[in-house]
Design goal:
The chain has helices at residues 16-27, 35-41, 64-71, 89-101, 112-115, 155-165, and strands at 44-45, 57-58, 78-82, 105-111, 124-134, 137-142, 149-154, 168-172. By secondary structure, the chain is of the alpha+beta class.
């Protein structure tokens, strides 16, 4: 997963999904799409007072990423593993380790503030899981835009942040 070290893409506001997809594509040797190109093909909801904050950004549904890959002749496939598939963070981190060892890009959707100990209903976000440091710690690549970069997070905190968002792991290979 070290390929991501030189490929940080800082997200434009509410474009975390396109930024993460651009980094994932680059990791797999595809550098012909920018986050702007990707965003044009996704339903991006702008941040406004009229729209609930959970609806801001890219609206990813079943097969959204696979449809994008197919429409653009990209030889990748996304498989979604819902967080409910895992009994707890121990089982989640075992699966993440297995996926990373097989060069699968693992994107996680989560509730941003839950990850950092503030259990409020706030913004949904995505990051790439780069490395399992231990059973208790992971390294993620957060596209930002605020505080973009590598972060070390507790496995348990990420697990509960994913649960709070009712999301999961987006496995791209």
């Amino acid at each position: 997963m070290k390929k991501y070290l030189e490929q940080i893409v800082v997200s434009k506001p509410n474009w975390c999904v396109p930024a993460v997809i651009e980094m994932g594509l680059k990791h797999h040797g595809i550098d012909t799409f920018s986050q702007q190109d990707i965003a044009k093909q996704f339903n991006i909801v702008p941040a406004t007072d009229e729209v609930e904050h959970k609806k801001w950004g890219a609206q990813i549904k079943e097969n959204t990423l696979n449809d994008f890959f197919s429409a653009n002749l990209i030889p990748l496939h996304e498989e979604f593993i819902p967080i409910g598939h895992f009994m707890d963070d121990y089982f989640m981190v075992e699966k993440i380790q297995e996926l990373l060892e097989n060069d699968v890009s693992v994107v996680c959707g989560y509730n941003y503030t839950w990850l950092y100990g503030n259990q409020e209903d706030t913004f949904q976000h995505v990051s790439i899981i780069i490395e399992v440091l231990s059973k208790n710690e992971l390294c993620i690549l957060d596209p930002g835009p605020k505080n973009a970069g590598y972060k070390i997070v507790k496995t348990e905190d990420l697990y509960y942040a994913i649960r709070a968002a009712k999301d999961g792991l987006w496995c791209i290979s």
